[in-house]
Amino acid sequence: MENDVEKNNMVKEFYIPTYIFVPESPVEHASQIPTCPVIVFVNTKSGGQLGRELIVTYRKLLNHAQVFDLLDEAPDNVLHRLYSNLERLKHGGDTLASEVYRRLRLIVAGGDGTAGWLLGVVSDLKLGHPPPVATVPLGTGNNLPYSFGWGKKNPGTDYDSVISFLQLVRESREMNIDSWHIVMRMESPKDSPCDPIAPPDLPHSLHAFRRMPKTDPQDMEYSYTYRGGFWNYFSMGMDAQVSYAFHSQRKLHPEKFKNQLSNQKTYLKLACTQGWFCASLFHPMSRNIACLAKVKIMKKSGKWETMEIPQSIRSIVCLNLPSFSGGLNPWGTPSKRKQRKRDLVMPPLVDDGLLEVVGFKDAWHGLVLLSPKGHGTRLAQAHRVRFEFLRGATDHAYMRMDGEPWKQPLPTDDGKVVVEISHAGQVKMLATKDCIAKGVHDHESCPAISTVHPESIYNDMNDDFEEERRNFGAALSFRYLSDVNKQ
Predict the structure, then answer these.
(1) Does residue 432 form part of some domain?
(2) pLDDT of residue 194
(3) Closest CA relative to residue 266, chosen from 42, 48, 114
């Protein structure tokens, strides 16, 4: 009985009354101010049946009104409504509302793509006091949760497991991480086989921004622009192709993907059949990164330079966090001598305004990450990365952002596709004592680069994508157009 009383008292520390969410509700006089008020977002499609089981437990423990199924309501609608109501209540002198505003923490249960969706919304809403985010690992790779100490195995869904997680949320510390903006522009003649991506095939973190003729409606050349963001990685090549095959199968047969271990076995099997292990038999040279695209990078100088890519590289990863493919660290820890030789000026930090760019030859190359000092081919550290796809190399490429893959059409004629990645500020994550991600303040020897805003480097530059970079486009209210197919 005592345990039940303790649990009930503890749960009150996270409880938010209904009137905070629903303006029409009568004001409730809470017996205590919650020390760690939370809003919980659950992707009930993630983790097989686990997402559904988890949301039931959270709704029984907390107020039903503070736990949301992302299949029923998008996070931008929830947060916009919540913060509008909080502002109204604060101005009316409501002490509880003021404390909820100040102490609020978000919990998101899903894969890396789901977590990225929520982070994009928080970034787009430009809140005066943005809440930090904790991630529940319900995906296959779970790189975001693993990086910040939340683990990579799917969690328990019973009361005790959820209460233990809530306690970790209460005890966790806030940590800044870099946000990365991505803009993709496709230009091609009208009726070209290089069609835009269908909205259902887009990852949550990438949105159609606009479609327009280059000059006037009679013009034969059209431009399609997409924008979005990531917090862990952007990758292109064979790793994204395997991921795309996995996601395609899971869409067709969701009933076969309810167990994390069997999902990982399926993933490995697909890596074999897609040619990630057997390049000479399955993988044409035209899919090597150097044959697909010219890659340019921008360092602190603010000038673009072409990055040299070995012909053998078939996957390229732009990495922000020290976790990829379920907890592996492709960058590793280069020695001081190698850092100086390769102009790798910083250790891999999550808040330094730099991406680590790594290449892989094949899956055998990737297996070296399992060894203590294993790493991919370190190519560069950069503030910006730009991919200019070569005409006629192939009709499509595979890309992936934070676990969500897509098949990108490429022009076989006079069109072009450009993908550009740039720094876009920072968001707040919640980190446990098991956090493996490192920030500038964790390294005394690091220069104070966190006080330098990379955006300031570009203020005097002619930026083709300036308008697109105003938001990630993660919140529906920030889309210029609903989607390109409706134009």
Answers:
(1) no
(2) 56
(3) 48
Which residues, other chains included, contact 426 with Cβ-Cβ below 8 Å and sequence gap of 6+? 176, 177, 178, 179, 351
Q: pTM to 2 decimals?
A: 0.82
Neighbouring residues of 460: CB distance < 8 A, sequence distance ≥ 6:
none
Can you tell me the distance from the alpha carbon of 171 to that of 9, in angstroms, rounded to the nearest whole number? 16
Tens digits of per-residue pLDDT, 97-139? 999 999 999 999 998 889 998 999 999 888 889 999 999 999 8
Note the pLDDT of residue 459: 43
Q: Is-contact 224 211, C-beta < 8 A?
A: yes
Domain that holds residue 29: 1-171
Backbone angles phi, psi at 229, to 5 degrees: -160, 165
In this structure, are 103 and 238 located in the same domain? no
User: Is 478 strand, coil or helix?
Assistant: helix
Side chain identity at residue 12, one-letter code: K
Query: Quick check: helix, strand or coil at residue 431?
Result: strand
- Torsion sign over Cα 77, 429, 101, 66: positive
Contacts of 188 (CB under 8 A, 6+ apart): 194, 221, 222, 411, 413, 414, 415, 416
Cβ atoms 428, 174 nearer than 8 A:
yes
Q: Which two tokens stand for residue 335?
A: 């020695």
In a domain, 453, yes or no: no
How many other C-beta atoms can be found within 10 angstroms of the C-beta atom of residue 127?
14
pLDDT at 479: 40
Residue 336's nearest CA partner among 347, 321, 350, 325 is 347
Residues 62, 187, single domain; the answer is no
Please identify, among 137, 171, 205, the residue that sits at the C-terminal boundary of a domain.
171
Indicate whether 155 and 212 sit together in one domain.
Answer: no
CA–CA separation, 176 vs 192, rounded Å?
A: 43
Q: Residue 370 class from Cβ within 10 Å (0-12 exposed, 13-18 middle, 19+ buried)?
A: exposed
Instruction: Looking at the structure, tell me whether residues 236 and 164 fall in a common domain.
Output: no
Closest C-alpha to 383, from 459, 443, 457, 308: 457
Strands, E assignment, 43-127: 67-69, 105-110
